[in-house]
Amino acid sequence: MIGFGHVARNSWLPTLRAAGFHCSVYDIDIEARSAANEAGCKVYDYLPPAANYADFALILTPSPRHAADATSALRAGYHVLLEKPATTTIQEWIGVSSLAESLDRVALAAPLTYAGAAAGATARIINSSRLGELASVQVHLAKPGPFLNDGTVAPNRIWFLGPDAGPARDFAPYPLALLVYLLGPMADVRWSIPSSPKQEPHLLTGRFGDYPFSGVFSYSHAPARPCPVMLTFSGGTVCLDSEAVDVLPTVDGVGDTAIPAPIPRTKYALALQHLLASLQDRRIVEVNHQVNADVILILEKLGNHNYGR
User: Fold this and answer.
1) Do the domain assignments include residue 309?
2) Domain harbouring 153, CATH code
3) Same domain for 77 and 177
């Protein structure tokens, strides 16, 4: 793992260990290395070269460093999986993807919310036309985000996502990756953002083909909606949670019992499975590159890349 912060320690490390992997950590921060050492990881203050073809690196550093850290890891012989958002610009993503291909390495980026059973079941509903024509798509996603109980922003979170990040860059990639996979690129992208990325919402409008889209992304300590993604058809409504990758969607509020429910995976376990599978099936890489390119193009319309430090 390149970078050992909250997500690395609490989400990726348990996922990797459950899958039987031995974990090493490279981090430029001495406190992060100390925490990784206490967690039982082998720790480096430099990036060692990959020992085997199948070695992979998880890019878990602050978002502004993703492209540079992925480039270093690829040149050191690793396959890479970048946490979301993959890169800050489409040019960076194209650069990482092209370098990986030239070195016969895999570069994937989270989120892979489009690869779970929920997305597959939703795609079958869309393609079957059983609910008629799609009319509109909405997302209403609220999460606690970086705010402490006193309303101030956790200092490391500003560094991690950039001072202008807000909820859009923080967690909009989850539903956006799902939707561009199902419906194609978003057109007529328009963001409405407050002057400060605090608790005011970030609003996104656009369209998928002929279907209007509206999204509300906000920081909130209130309980989140159980199904923040809603597709409205002429004959019914499909709702799902893009982060609960294997929880099947509901149709008009009722679970679809015609589709057997899988054993649910976390979004991290799903990403790891696809990374490993992509070493043999490069079609996984092609889909991932296109999905992330479409998501990055939407986030670029936020317009401000002043990521600070």
Assistant:
1) no
2) 3.30.360.10
3) no
Helix (H) or strand (E) holding 166: helix 166-171
Are residues 103 and 125 part of one domain? no
| Domain residue limits at 50 | 6-109
Neighbours of 276 (CB within 10 A): 17
Q: With contact defined as beta carbons under 8 Å apart, do 112 and 270 qualify?
A: yes
Q: Which residue has the tokens 């990726």?
A: 12
What CATH code is carried by the domain that includes residue 76?
A: 3.40.50.720
Q: Report the DSSP beta bridge partners of residue 216.
A: 140, 203
User: How many independent structural domains does the chain possess?
Assistant: 2
Cα dihedral across residues 207, 67, 10, 200: positive or negative = negative
Last residue of a domain, which of 64, 94, 109?
109
Q: What angle do CA 228, 198, 201 make, to 5 degrees?
A: 35
Tens place of pLDDT per residue across the chain (309 aa)? 999 988 899 999 999 999 999 999 999 999 999 999 999 999 999 999 999 999 999 999 988 899 999 999 999 999 999 999 999 899 999 999 999 999 999 999 999 999 999 999 999 999 998 899 999 999 999 887 665 555 565 655 554 555 556 788 888 999 999 999 999 999 999 998 776 555 468 899 999 999 999 999 987 766 667 789 999 999 999 999 999 999 889 998 776 655 666 678 999 999 999 999 999 999 999 999 999 999 999 999 887 533 332
**Is position 307 within any domain?**
no
DSSP string over 55-70: -EEEE-S-GGGHHHHH
User: DSSP letters of 236-295?
Assistant: EEEEE-TTSTTSPPEETTEE-TTSPPPPPPPHHHHHHHHHHHHTT-THHHHHHHHHHHHH
Strand intervals (E) in the chain = 24-26, 42-44, 56-59, 79-82, 107-109, 134-143, 187-192, 202-208, 211-219, 229-233, 236-240, 250-251, 254-255
pTM, two decimals, is 0.91
